[in-house]
Amino acid sequence: MSEIGERVKKIVVEHLGVEPEKVVDSASFIDDLGADSLDTVELVMAFEEEFGCEIPDDAAETILTVGDATKFLEKNAKS
Amino acid sequence: MRRVVVTGLGMLTPLGCGVDATWARILAGDSGCKKIDTFEVSDLPSQVACYIPRGDGSGGTFNPDQWMEPKDQRKVDDFILYAMCAAKQALDDADWHPKSDEDQFATGTMIGSGIGGLTGIAETAVLLKERGPRRISPFFIPGRLINLASGYVSIEHGLKGPNHAVVTACSTGAHAVGDAARLIALGDAEVMVAGGAESPISRIGIAGFCAARALSTGFNDTPQKASRPYDKDRDGFVMGEGAGVLVLEEYEHAKRRGAKIYAEVTGYGLSGDAFHITSPPPDGNGGFRSMSMALKRAGLAASDLDYINAHGTSTQVGDEIELGAVERLLGNAASKVSMSSTKSATGHLLGAAGAIEAIFAVLAIRDNVVPPTINLDNPSVQTAIDLVPHTSRKRDVNVALSNSFGFGGTNASVIVQRVTN
User: Fold this and answer.
1) Please, where are the H alpha helices in B245-352?
2) What are B195's strand-pairing partners?
3) A4 is a domain residue
4) Could you tell me the residue range of the domain that residue A49 belongs to?
5) Residue A50 touches partner B, C-beta closer than 8 Å
6) Fewest beta carbons less than 10 Å away: which of B214, B221, B263, B407?
7) What's the gap in Å between the CA of B70 and the closest CA on chain A?
8) B139 and A16 in contact by Cβ < 8 A?
9) Which pTM was predicted?
10) Looking at the complex, does the CB of residue B142 fall below 8 Å from at least one CB of chain A?
């Protein structure tokens, strides 16, 4: 997993309180990791904070899995 | 009206996590007060508070992870976490874990708070100013709202009856017990999980009550002496944190399922002072009327009372006004009644106070013992009423009344008594 992928995984484990093994690229935040709609809003905020970038609402709507987040941040991360 | 009994108790107080842990230390005359060490106090007049004892969960300590998932703890202010802790204890104690639709629909929640998520609101206001609205968590609002204590408890335990919350400052806990009992009496629920929770020990909380000149300021170096109701050297209350929750149940429902029955809630009185936002009227007529109404509701005379758990916060003005109202209520019966303020040991838990004190009243009946008013070295006035100075005392307790009075001139009195058939 990429360095950005590792950082994404760490945030997801911390915020959703899930086992690290479950946080794989194909895992859906809502369907596989038990997040609700408010959790996903907070996750996006945590990504913004960690990677120093803004994730607009229309982009956030396309981030449904761990892999989606990693892919987006590999392109857009500023820190 | 249908009869309402107490079948479960749960508490988290500055004296311990759990009813047994707290009660043992109350009866031993311990104080839960210490120097504030979680934030800067050098510029605050009051520097003492009654913290819940955090630890690994052993020896009566509070381990948050035993009561709420860490990921959920992050989303809420502590009063909700404390409510979750006390509510689980109470439901386990009552052995009431409703699973069927019928049982879930018949079980409600009424857990209030005086202030709710003050700390989280203060921190988020700073975040908003410094970083802007995009940094505000989606959990900011649902984690601070007072009724979310009831909300979280109802979700955790599948309680689908009335989902309500009381907000009446320092009489919240007593109003919650009284109002929840009333919902059962009127048939809106068979079981209610009722009480209060508070987490006010923060810089803004202490600063706010200091500004209102409500807190003790003269015992910063001897914190365990700071809360001293009725004593001539008292100089304000000591802030406390925690939660108290009771499981209230319709009498026949409790009997049918063979539940352990602690006591019956027979009296409840409420009144307003219509006088001042923070001070009671000098004649204490609001407290007098709420006590009188509770006696009337219970069908009792003042001479039937054995124990009164006083509001008694250790403020200069309030203690003597309440005492005067109680003397007027009791008349010639004053010498047979014991009245103590357990706030001398726990500090003032604001919205949780009335709930933990209703529990102490129930335990006084169960064990035929009255808890002490600690630090009462020199009463500021003479009274025929036994104020139970320093040490607990064995005595018959069949009828107990608990008083709670709040800012805004709101008063509540709850009477619990030994169950008779």
Assistant:
1) 251-256, 285-298, 316-330, 343-346
2) B111, B245
3) yes
4) 1-74
5) no
6) B221
7) 7
8) no
9) 0.97
10) yes
Structure tokens at A77: 């991360």
- d(CA B21, CA B356) in angstroms, rounded, equals 13
Q: What is the mean pLDDT of residues B239-246?
A: 98
What is the b/e burial string over B148-165, where b = at least 16 CB atoms within 10 angstroms of the residue's CB? Answer: bbbbbbbeebebbbbbbb
User: Residue A11 domain-assigned?
Assistant: yes
**Residue A79 counted as domain residue:** no
Answer for the pair B348, B216: CB distance below 8 angstroms, yes or no: no
Report residue A28 as tokens: 């859906």
The pLDDT, as a whole number, for residue A79 is 81
Q: In total, how many domains does chain A have?
A: 1
CB contact under 8 A, B71 and A45: no
Closest CA to B161 of B72, B250, B90: B250
Is B348 designated active site? yes
Residues in B closer than 8 angstroms to A36, CB to CB, are: none
Two tokens at B122? Answer: 């203060």
Q: Which of B17, B33, B50, B170 is catalytic?
A: B170
What does the alpha-carbon distance between residue B45 and residue B57 come to, in Å, rounded to a whole number?
A: 33
- CATH number of the domain that residue A40 is part of: 1.10.1200.10
* Maximal C-alpha separation, chain B: 65
Considering only the beta carbons, identify the residue of A17, A42, A49 that sits closest to B139: A42
Other residues' Cβ atoms within 10 Å of the Cβ of residue A55: 21
B chain contacts of residue A34, beta-carbon cutoff 8 Å: none
Comparing CA positions, the residue from B387, B313, B310, B388 lying closest to residue B348 is: B313
Q: What is the distance of C-alpha B404 from the center of its chain?
A: 8
Q: Which residue has the tokens 């992050």?
A: B74
pLDDT given for residue B267 in this prediction: 98
Contact present, B312 and B343 (Cβ < 8 Å): yes
pLDDT for B355 beyond 70: yes
- Is A1's pLDDT higher than 80? no
Could you tell me if B405 and B275 are in contact, meaning their C-beta atoms sit under 8 angstroms apart?
no
Residue B199 confidence (pLDDT) above 70: yes
